[in-house]
Design goal:
This protein is of the alpha+beta class. The chain is built from eleven helices and eight strands.
């Protein structure tokens, strides 16, 4: 029951089905059955009284059972709960958390959703409230050729690989570069945002976004279900610790100069900008499509849209 009620789509279907069954039961009891037995006839007052009697009994029993379950459930179980969420629920949950949170931690591969939605939404919220946000982003190290090649191979093996352009080593690098430069741009242009960028030399099949309310754990396959753990639970705290450990083993990106805005950032000057930032050498950029990088920065696409 809890699994059904926690999911909006299933919850609406469940409530609709219950209402339908209730109406059918009332029609059969008070309109159909009295046609066959006159002793079953009942007035509206009697019907209402029966409903109140049943409600009172059901309420008492529910409270007693709920209290019993609460007291016998061990504390470790209460604190170790993770909910399975459908793929179509991931996007709305992330968007809701992005608008309400003052801190955000992302650990993944390329950060496409972070670039397209998390950064602009948190920047907008910070401006409206006049209160700062802290954002920590952990991505793949685009200077590691073997890592990018392995990740591209992994992405091509997924069911969702049939959608969009083919994943290659160069595409992985381009996506990471776009996210790094986007984050540095927001860091410079939005003084209420404190952004840290970390580059790691390993990848996982899972990625996670940690907000003030919950952590959402997803796979790179857009058709796969996700997991959600609320704040103060064992798993929420564990993912926060995992992010700290990864950051300690990562390479930080530090750059405080101005990043060219839309129109000023072109395929001609972006190579020099990347080298100036210092997270990739000029020799690593020879085979990359800088036009596509600029397009990904200026017009990011939400992968959950």
């Amino acid at each position: 029951m809890e699994s059904i009620l926690n999911k909006k789509h299933y919850r609406n279907i469940f409530y609709g089905f219950v209402v339908l069954l209730f109406l059918i039961s009332v029609i059969l009891r008070y309109l159909v059955l009295p046609q066959f037995d006159n002793s079953l006839e009942a007035s509206f007052i009697k019907f209402f009284a029966i409903i109140l009697d049943g409600f009172a009994i059901s309420l008492l029993v529910s409270v007693l059972i709920g209290g019993f379950v609460f007291w016998v459930t061990p504390d470790i179980v209460k604190k170790s709960v993770m909910d399975v969420i459908d793929p179509k629920e991931i996007g709305p949950l992330l968007k809701k958390a992005t608008s309400d949170s003052r801190t955000w931690i992302y650990k993944g591969a390329c950060g496409r959703y972070t670039r397209a939605t998390t950064l602009p939404t948190m920047a907008k919220s910070a401006r409206q409230e006049g209160i700062g946000r802290d954002i920590r982003i952990t991505l793949l190290d685009p200077s590691n050729d073997l890592l990018c090649e392995e990740y591209a191979t992994y992405r091509r093996s997924l069911k969702s690989a049939k959608n969009g352009s083919r994943w290659t080593k160069n595409k992985v690098k381009e996506e990471v570069i776009a996210t790094v430069i986007s984050a540095l741009r927001y860091k410079h242009e939005e003084p209420l945002l404190r952004i840290e960028i970390h580059l790691i030399n390993h990848f996982s099949a899972f990625r996670f976004d940690i907000s003030d309310q919950y952590v959402i754990v997803t796979k790179e396959d857009s058709e796969a279900a996700g997991l959600k753990a609320d704040k103060s639970t064992y798993f929420y705290d564990s993912y926060v610790d995992d992010s700290r450990l990864s950051e300690r083993q990562s390479k930080g990106v530090s750059y405080n100069k101005k990043i060219p805005l839309d129109g000023d950032l072109t395929s001609g000057n972006i190579k020099g900008l990347i080298v100036d930032i210092g997270f990739m050498a000029e020799s690593d950029l020879q085979d990359l499509d800088m036009e596509r990088v600029v397009q990904s920065i200026n017009s990011p696409e939400d992968p959950y849209s």
